[in-house]
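RECORD TYPE: protein structure
NAME: Outer membrane protein TolC
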Amino acid sequence: MIELPPAKTVLALMVAFSLTACVRLNPQPLTEQTLSEQGGADRVAAQQDVEPITGPLTLEQVIARALKYNLDRRARMLEEALAFQQFDASRYDMLPKLLAQAGYTSRNNDKISQSRNSDDGTLSESRFISQERDHTVSSLSLSWNMLDLGVGYFGSRQQADRALIAGEKRRKAMHLLMQDVRTAFWRAVSAQKLEAEVRATTLVAEEALADAHQAETERLRNPLDSLRYQRQVLENLRLLEAIEQELSTAQTELAALINAPIGQPIALVEPDFDLDRQALAVPVATMEEVAMVANADIREQHYNARIARDETRKTLTRLFPSLNFSYGVNYDTDSYLVNRQWNETGVQLSFNLFNLLTGPAQLKLAEAGVALADQRRVSMQMAVMAQVHLARQQLINAQHQFQRADSIWQVDRRISEHMSNREATQVQSKLDRVANQTTAILSLLRRYQALAQAQTAEARLQATLGVEPKIGSVGEMSLDDLTQTLASSRNGWQLLAARARKDASL
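PREDICTED:
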């Protein structure tokens, strides 16, 4: 028989190994090569399964690409999927615990016992070995705690509500994404429309400025008139450069939203825009009613209130006595045992007496959580009610601003046409030409900006109401099918107006 080392020696060795492991644990910063390789792999993963852009994109195609390929939206969808997976896993907390155990025991000497006489206290000379030095023990036991069952049931209900909250957050993120995409699309359209005109007008302005410098140098004109001329040209150049800076980021912002390669030019199809007043035809009362049942923030607060109430029930369940049922099958290889295999059944009732002291405080805490959740729900409903009115008024203001910007652009366009005719007869100077073209470009830019604001205001109103296209699972739909679904869902305001008329007729 091999003699085992003393217990103190074994303990000392274990402590030494533990200290050595702690000393060798050092921070390991990421290397530049690792970061570079991971960055390349992430860029490849970001473009995985993304259909390439093969032609000009319409507004519906841009929104469809954003819904299907936007990276932030993918993260929201994964968060929702994770929440549902957590809900599925939480349901197993209600099952009994089935525990399988196996162990090996070894000692360096025999387990010997003696007996003591109860009358005179003398020890018996007989010594008994009651256990083998080496033996294995195995068991399979099933236990079910009724308290854990109740707590697990309410915990599973809470996790189900958290999964639904993740779905509402995904809806809200989708509304915000569609709103941002609309704004970025019209900014990119205006950049596509005005880029060539801005560059051409800038070249003319540079030529006019160079002519003014030459005229000043050669003293062909009054110095004061020449400086005033240069000042006006420079002011027009400043406006043109501001417009160019305003438009320079539009393509990048749109590419980031639809997960297109950064730097790749994106051709866009400008839709025929007619000011849509269908949203304003829906009565305010109908908008309020729709928002109360469909707004993502309100629905999230309803689920939070349910979670708070289930937390109260969990707290109350923990205050009950714990009843545990157990059944197990055991086996021991010890030859000194008469019955090496045996079955064991047990019922155990336990109660934490400190619950009598802490129970009322725990219940008050849970009830305070319910009151807070209810107050947040009421506050959110009132806030959404105000948001409905604000979003509707903002849409009215944005449409009015667009009409005004469109009228100004129409006038500036007609002025530009007249100036072009004068240019053909060489009546106007380069300064007049630059000034008129700059004014026309600025008016057209403001028209597009007002148009983008009108589109954003309408999308904001849709998000406040919780109105969204019925698109189903984006991952299972092809890009073409998703585009067609978005194109056919334009009549959402018409459906709401028809609903209002139907309710009014009842």
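COMMENT: The CA atoms of residues 341 and 502 lie 77 Å apart.
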